[in-house]
Every structure is written in structure tokens, then in C-alpha cells.
Specification:
Length: 334
């Protein structure tokens, strides 16, 4: 079947190009350097053998769920990793090395009241010999199949979710890069820190499961985690990690002006002056959320602030739960 072989990478790199199954040769997805362009539809990708049943996904891919996930308008997300046969992610160093041919997928869905969830878009990120490539598929109104977008502009889609109607924006390829390219590797949610938690319903961490399955070359000996004696502070640090650190990570460039990584976030924000000309003032003023530039940015309320809404791309709605959490945290700061 063409679909499954596309994903499988079809044969091990040792086999060399041309020695895979006939359909693999036809599609050219040999798990090596000979990667073809992304197919036009996910039905050809083979991620969902039956696209109308997204609980049924190809067994050759692995589901994962990052701790400290990114909040995207409250959408549900399903994430997968697929490796060429025989390849592993080299986790022997702190900076993980991904093999050529690795593909990540993420499907975004919304759920109107009393309805099944409906997929809106499936994003794909893969490593080729030249570097990382991005692709995005837009699903049709029935959620029956999807088509590859050209990625030149963001696409707005009207959605219903838990009683709310709003427009979800499918990012352009340039926007993918704004979030994914401020760090190496380009993968964001598949790292030591974020896999150091079980999938819901499991007991072993995903790190342990993936190492056991041979997807990770080894289990990191003392995996990174976010720990703070104060539970609320720990949650706030987790929120920054999931929603901000892909830009605010202390690397060069305007988008990462200051570092919100859990190891340094507090010292970079509490009582520290903002560099933004738009708001001015202090990032976090203990006890005073409304005089905290960071809070104003996250609350996205243009009626009370000129602060640029944060995150600046990728969300269109206010994350009320996070806003409330950060407000309570700032109020409680000594
Ligand atoms: C607003 C920032 C942002 C934008 C824009 C964005 N991403 Fe991501 N993406 C993330 C973050 C953060 C994660 C990891 C956390 C999560 O999945 O909840 C992620 C995860 C992914 C994953 C799963 C693998 C991984 O890196 O964890 C894929 C695949 C992906 N994104 C593809 C894309 C593509 C393709 C685009 C553009 C069409 C895109 N993303 C746009 C922030 C972004
Ligand atoms: C897509 C990249 C991106 C993401 C994600 C992002 N930011 Fe920003 N952030 C920027 C850029 C670019 C600026 C500079 C704009 C400005 O000066 O107002 C900025 C500025 C800021 C500022 C004001 C500048 C300063 O020095 O204090 C704050 C506060 C801020 N971000 C907080 C956050 C928080 C909190 C999150 C997560 C909820 C977040 N950002 C997510 C790109 C990003």
C-alpha cells in the first residue's frame, strides 16, 4: 500500500536506494536522502489509514504528548513521530540528533458541543539532507480528508469549540519558522524535559517508553524537569516553557530578547524592566498584575494596554485559565 510505505520509510538505510519494496521505490521514500515532496493529501501520507477515523492511526508511528504543551485556542492536538526503519534519535548528548527522514505530525481539532471532534489542520515537520521542512494540510468541512496548502499565507478557518465560535488561523510556513527556528534542533515538543512525563493512562515516562522501543538511542540519565517548591510558581514556569520559550530562549534576535526558560525565568522577569518600547515598565511587579508588562501582554486586552499580545502568533483567543493563573501568581508574590 502506497500510503503506509510513504510513512514507514520502507526500508532500512543499509538497503540503499532502489532495494525497497516496489511501492517504496515508486514513492521514493526510502528513509535516506531521497525524500520526495510532501504528498497532496494525508490519505496518501498514510498517517490515518482511514481518514474518517482518526483514532485509527498507522502503528508504525508513535504518539507522544509533551508536558507543558502549547495552548492553541483550546484546540485538541494529536502528535506523532515517525522514523525511517532502523533509525533512532541519538540521545547520547544533551543536544539530541535527529536522523534524516524523521517526520513529526500534529493534528489540531475542535469539538462543537455534543459533537465529535473535527480536524482543522495537520502540520508536518521533517528532516531532509538539506535541513528541516515544514508542511501543512487543511482538512475539508466534514473532516474526511485534507489537502496540502502552499504555506505562502496564513489561512483563517471559522470553527466552533465548546460553545464558542471564532476563527482559527493556520500558520504560513514563515510563521512555522518564527517559532521553530530560534533554536536547534527545530523540533520543540520532543525533548528531554517534555517527554519526562507519562502519556495519560500510562505509568512509565515517555522517555522510558521511547527508549524501550528503540526510538531514542538511550535513556537520559537524569532528565530535566521543572520543579519549584511553590506549586503555583511551578505551573507558571511550565506555562512559559510551553508557550514562550520557543521564542524567548536567550538566543540572538529580537524575538528572543529575554530568556523564559524555567531555569532562569524568575530572575529575568521579577522586578526587571521590559525592553519593549510599546509598554515600558516592569515585566512582573510583585502584587500588581496591572503594572506588570508580561501580564498585560498575556492578557491580550487592547482596551487597557498597548503591549503587543503574547504569544504574538499562533493564537487568536485569550487563554483565560493561564491569565487567571498568572494574575494569582503575581498577586501572591512577596
Ligand atoms: C506560535 C508558535 C508556533 C508556530 C507558529 C508553529 N509551531 Fe509547531 N510547535 C510549536 C510548539 C511550542 C510545539 C511543541 C509544543 C506542543 O506541541 O504543544 C510545536 C510542535 C510542532 C510539531 C510536533 C513536533 C515538535 O516540534 O514538537 C509539529 C509537526 C509542528 N509543530 C509543525 C509546525 C508547522 C508545520 C508549522 C507551520 C505551519 C508550525 N508548527 C507552526 C510552536 C509553533
Ligand atoms: C513567536 C515568538 C514569540 C513568542 C511565542 C512569545 N513572544 Fe514575547 N516577544 C516576541 C517579540 C518579537 C517581542 C518584541 C516585541 C515588543 O517589543 O513588544 C516580544 C516581547 C515580549 C515582551 C515585552 C518585551 C520585554 O522586554 O519585556 C514580553 C513581556 C513578552 N514578550 C512575554 C512573552 C510571554 C510571557 C510569552 C508566552 C506566553 C511570549 N512572550 C511568547 C516574540 C514572542
Amino acid at each position: 500500500m502506497l500510503a503506509a510505505t510513504w510513512l514507514l520509510g520502507a526500508c532500512s538505510p543499509d538497503d540503499g536506494p532502489g532495494n525497497g519494496s516496489l511501492s517504496a521505490v515508486e514513492t521514493g521514500f526510502l528513509g535516506g536522502e531521497q525524500l520526495q515532496v510532501f504528498p497532496d493529501a494525508p490519505s496518501e501520507v498514510g498517517l490515518y489509514p482511514d481518514t474518517t477515523n482518526r483514532d485509527d492511526w498507522t502503528p508504525s508511528v508513535s504518539l507522544f504528548e509533551p508536558a507543558h504543551a502549547l495552548w492553541t485556542n483550546g484546540s485538541e492536538k494529536q502528535r506523532f513521530v515517525s522514523l525511517p526503519v532502523g533509525a533512532t534519535v541519538d540521545t547520547s548528548q544533551a543536544d539530541w540528533v535527529f536522523p534524516v527522514g524523521v517526520i513529526f505530525f500534529k493534528t489540531f481539532s475542535y469539538r462543537a458541543l455534543d459533537e465529535d471532534s473535527l480536524p482543522i489542520e495537520t502540520r508536518a515537520l521533517r528532516k531532509t539532507a538539506e535541513g528541516w521542512e515544514y508542511a501543512v494540510y487543511l482538512w475539508d468541512d466534514e473532516g474526511a480528508d485534507a489537502a496540502l496548502l502552499d504555506g505562502s499565507i496564513p489561512v483563517k478557518v471559522a470553527v466552533s469549540h465548546q460553545g464558542d465560535q471564532f476563527e482559527h488561523e493556520v500558520p504560513s510556513t514563515l510563521q512555522c519558522r518564527m517559532c521553530h527556528e530560534s533554536q536547534e534542533p527545530r523540533v520543540i515538543g520532543f525533548d528531554e524535559l517534555r517527554l519526562n512525563a507519562p502519556l495519560s493512562g500510562d505509568t512509565a515516562t515517555q522517555l522510558a517508553e521511547l527508549a524501550e522501543a528503540g526510538i531514542l538511542s538511550e535513556l537520559p540519565p537524569a532528565p530535566d524537569e521543572i520543579v519549584h517548591e511553590d506549586e503555583l510558581t511551578e505551573s507558571v514556569l511550565g506555562y512559559f516553557q510551553g508557550n514562550c520559550v520557543h521564542c524567548h530562549n536567550g538566543s540572538f534576535g529580537a524575538a528572543s530578547a529575554f530568556d523564559l526558560d524555567h531555569s532562569v525565568a524568575l530572575e529575568n522577569i521579577i522586578g526587571v524592566e521590559t525592553t519593549s518600547e510599546l509598554v515600558g515598565g516592569i515585566r512582573v511587579t510583585p502584587g500588581l498584575p496591572d503594572e506588570s508588562g508580561l501580564f498585560l501582554a498575556v492578557s491580550r486586552n487592547s482596551e487597557v494596554t498597548t503591549a503587543q499580545p503574547m504569544p504574538p502568533i499562533g493564537v487568536q483567543r485569550v487563554d483565560e485559565v493561564a491569565v487567571d493563573m498568572i494574575r494569582r501568581w503575581i498577586l501572591a508574590l512577596p
